Amino acid sequence: MSDKPLKISGYYLNNQAKSFDYTMNRIYDVLEEQQKPPKKNEYIAQVISGMITNSTDTDSFFDVVLKQFNGVQSLEYKIRFIEQDEKFNRVEDPFDPKLTEQEKIQRIDFHDTAYFEKNNSNTIMPSNGCIVSLVKDNEIYKIRKVLYDGNVQSSYNVIASGRNAFSKNFNVDFMFKQGILAGNKEKLKEKEITLPDNIIQKLYSSFNQKAPEIKEKSVFFFGVRNLGKTNYNLFADTMIVAVKEADKFKFYSFNITTTPGKSFLGNLSYTKDGTLVLASPQYIKSAYAFTAHKGKYLALGQIGKFYYWRDKDRDSKADDSPATNVTLHSGTGNGVNIHRASADKKTKYISGPSGTSTSNAYKYEDGKWSSVTTSAYTYSAGCQVFSDPVDFNNFINLVSEDLSLNSKGGWDYFLIDSEDFATLAQGKLVKSSVEKKQKDKGITK
Question: Is it true that the peptide bond before 212 is cis, omega within 30 degrees of 0?
């Protein structure tokens, strides 16, 4: 009988020439097992069947197949896993702008298939670009629920511009579920104010505009810039939100800033041309739609054409009228979003000399602007920013309900001065004041 151990592992452990190889193979086995995608049953994915042929199309070419599946008619979609489930994608992103149309279609064809069965509990049919939750049943993916309809924001069609509906880091877990965001109904109630029920109509009329159709749960909002502010590093402005409830409006008032922070109105700026300051008063049709602010959380992103100033006189205050080193511009794509400051606490200061990370900016030194890496932070370089995350979440929840119930793809935005708001609050038009200010500042169509 051989003296060698019966187990092959014993042979390797007792053979110095082989022991190292055996040990390393064991380690590699463990590492390989850890790298395998975990077994799970629920997934988050984006429907990618079909392609939108150009950015002006409202209808997609939608390659959806009707099949018999377990005796039930099911729609077959191609899907791409997103967020934490991206590791389950077997094929690269089909919306890479470098690809040809044929290459995009080929990549879509190779993606996983999911089936949708319409029933009493699953009534919303998926559309191109929408976000869905999936369950896996015997190696077959079934669409359990539409979490977010990508077609609703067609005016901000991210697929047509060659990008996924949301960035890789965007957390969709809270989207359009029960308690979409960590809002607070009691705190929302504290924000209720009394205003004339016709203030929205008066606001549109003051800008020579006709108010759109007002449905149940329709939401309108406008920023009020405080002309009396003396400290440009505090959240000293207001966002007024109007929600149609039955036969009247319910109004809410939230603390925001409509101007950048002090640090980026001084010797720092993100561009050599100065820091963006949204001009007031102005009206922007279809100004905002839902987006992922910096790819991290649900917010409202600019889709309309805004008038804005480039302020580079470095006096640490926001100028919004013609002056030395203050220039008026108009355009889209500036990222003038509506978002929050801190995610977990109410914020006092808009900007400061040092934050927790560094960013690239321009600094004015020795008579010129130079590129620098700075730890100075700002929560606003032109955006409309909420100081309290709970207020922001309540605001987003209200707007989301309008989107969900009324299929609203974009929201208008007004930015007015505090003195004009005071007049509107008395039920009066501010048409003459708006026209004079816009003429003096050059804010004209």
Answer: no
18 assigned to some structural domain: no
What are the angstrom distances between the C-alpha of 443 and each of 238, 261, 310, 396?
22, 23, 14, 29
Lookup: tokens for 247: 């036969």
Q: Which of 87-101, 142-156, 357-371 is predicted with the least confidence, judged by mean pLDDT?
A: 142-156
Q: 289-305 b/e with 16+ CB inside 10 Å = b? A: bbbbbeeebbbbbbbbe
Q: What pTM was estimated for this model as a whole?
A: 0.65
CA angle, residues 25, 29, 32, in degrees to nearest 5 = 130
Does 225 lie in the same domain as 99? no
Q: What is the pLDDT of residue 267?
A: 92
Burial class from Cβ neighbours inside 10 Å (0-12, 13-18, 19+) for residue 275 reads buried
Tally of domains within the chain: 2
Indicate whether 116 and 190 sit together in one domain.
no
- Greater confidence (302 vs 52) lies with 302
- For residues 107 and 95, what is the distance between their CA atoms, to the nearest angstrom? 9
- The model's confidence at residue 56, banded by pLDDT at 50, 70 and 90, is very low
Residue 369 resides in a domain: yes
Shared domain for 48 and 194, answered yes or no, is no
Identify whether residues 216 and 87 lie together within a single domain.
no
Residue range 106-124, pLDDT digits in tens: 788 888 889 888 777 776 7
Q: Are residues 268 and 414 in the same domain?
A: yes
pLDDT of residue 20: 59
**Which residue range(s) make up the domain with 52?**
42-156
Q: Is residue 168 part of a domain?
A: no
**Do 267 and 222 fall within a single domain?**
yes
DSSP 200: H
C-alpha radius of gyration, the chain, whole number = 27
Is residue 275, in this structure, part of any structural domain at all? yes
